Amino acid sequence: MSPTVLIVDDSLTVRMNLHEAFEADGFTTILCATGEQARAAFVAGGFDVAVLDVLLPDADGVDLLRELRSLPGREHTVTVLLSSEAEVADRLLGLRTGADEYVGKPYDAGYVVARSRQLLGEDGAAADPRPTVLVIDDSLTFRERLRQLLEPEGYAVLTAASGEEGLRTAADRRPHAVIVDGIMPGIDGATVIRRLRLDPALRDTPCLLMTAADDYATEVQMLEAGADAFVRKQQDLAVVLAKLAAVLRTSAEQLPIEVIGSLHGPGKVLAVTADRRRLDEWGDVLRADGYDVVGAGSGDEALDLLAAQPVDCIVLGFDDDARRTCARVKEVPQIRDTPLVMAGDEDDALLECLAAGADDYVRSADGADTLRAHVRAQIRRKQSLDESRRIREELMRRELDAAGERAARQLAETRAALVEELEWRNRELEAFSGSVSHDLRGPLQVISSYAEAMLDEDDEPLSAQVRHRLERIHAAAGRMADLVESLLILARASRGELRRHRIDMTELAWQVIREVEAREPGREIEFRVDEAMTADADEGLVRVILENLVNNACKFTRRIEKPSIEVGWSGPHDEARYHIRDNGAGFPAGKAGELFRPFARLHSAEDFPGTGIGLTTVHRAVERHGGEIHAEGEDGRGATFWFTLPPGRAS
């Protein structure tokens, strides 16, 4: 669907000129002559771009812009202000009010159209799936003959009557191919092709050059100018179809990099000089090349404008203030790369201007064509640099993506190898656990049994020294048996498949507490367990967690007159935090991280005996569930162990 533009101007000539330019570019137009009609159009809507004259008989364009921006859904409508009031202060007012562009009169209709499409973010041909061919010829008859030839073959045809118009159309619409006449008023076909080849955005566009000349030298000249194919008008026009298909078939494939903008697209030049006559001359010269020219009378005005709106090139009059203005421009990071051309009357000022920071110098005596050529060359140089930078960035991004993919692939391969090795290690661990269970328990049981039998034997009384030694052997065998059992429990907690289901942790905690009370019937401990405590977890591992933490709390409250142990939880069911709290010996502040290391002890074995494996087992069991555990406490003031058991992911 073609975009629609609202054109508001009290001049019939301006309205019709813009209407024809926009319509030729594929826009639908809505025309208004007054502020009242514009307000009615605002309410009716249905437009994508608004071109507003600043001076209307019954309204001010800037006020209309404010009204448009205040309407719901119109905050980002593309808006161009058009005005004969082109002073910097007027431009700044319009831009700061919310205009996307401010174009001074006299204006170039092609610039207004191209800039509007640029602001819309369209390339002009995206909606048409057909390959687009631009025909540039000063003969209306020949343009129409080519249109009638190409459209039945599935091409979309654009036309231009001159080389200058053709370049602007190519910049705006980005055709797939260009057919250009060799001899035309203004710039000829060879010049058009040379300029296309110098444009970073258009240089790969296939070009066919047509001419009525039939000499060999002309053909060589045209091909050396950069044409992809040469066609004589005297030949059968079917040759055009064949050569067009051939150049499109072999056209270079582009990197998928966003094009910065065409050299011949909507360009803006800031002209800075206190000489009004020279400012007008520069404006006339550069507008002939399709540039919108903004005039500023001083460096301060120029910097104010550049802060509000970027430009493609700066032309600065060489005078006493020029060096300071140039330095100030080059100091601002956002605009320092904007090409700056100094223009003056002195013949030997080139080195001085370049030393001041200018990119180029033009003598006024060299004429208008020289100024145009220098401005065009500087813009082309900047665009080429920008294109090279963006290509480098794209290639770097691709290399980083490729490196990321390689790293991800290597990581996956490494992870697979580690998983395979881990599975092998687990099988080895299971075999070792079986060996420990069978091979170590038996000898320990024999040692313990013989030591116990010798201690109980009455036939041959033992000396005090021998009895002491046997008691130590018996106790060491018992500790070794306890350590083996603890290691086996740790191994079981570290492997095997989790069998998750919703368990009643309140009931499980009471079961563990009753077992503890049965082992120490004479000891009184106050136990408190929260009601309705549940978890989505492996019941066997949760029992291991509770047994170790509750036994740990009982052990470290032995020297407390009124021991108290609490099992509870907090938070929502799916994010619950469970805790076991006691009022026992606690542990030194800052040592909590050491509690879960194997065989780590923060108290002496004589005061609080144990294997040093229990909390490590708890840590492994919590980690198997994807949870976390940490401890809080102070020496002599009890301890609290917090842990989480996140629910398993649904498969």
From TrEMBL:
Q: What class of enzyme is it?
A: transferase
Domain (Histidine kinase) spans 435-649
SMART domains (UniProt xref): HATPase_c (SM00387), HisKA (SM00388), REC (SM00448)
- Report one GO cellular component: plasma membrane
Among the record's GO biological process terms, what is one?
A: osmosensory signaling via phosphorelay pathway
* PANTHER family per record: BACTERIOPHYTOCHROME (PTHR42878:SF15), TWO-COMPONENT HISTIDINE KINASE (PTHR42878)
Mind telling me which residue stretches traverse the membrane in this protein? none
Query: Which keywords does the record carry?
Result: Kinase, Phosphoprotein, Transferase, Two-component regulatory system
The uppermost taxa in this organism's lineage are: Bacteria, Bacillati, Actinomycetota, Actinomycetes, Micromonosporales
**Which catalysed reactions does the entry list for this protein?**
ATP + protein L-histidine = ADP + protein N-phospho-L-histidine
What name does UniProt use for this protein? Sensor-like histidine kinase SenX3
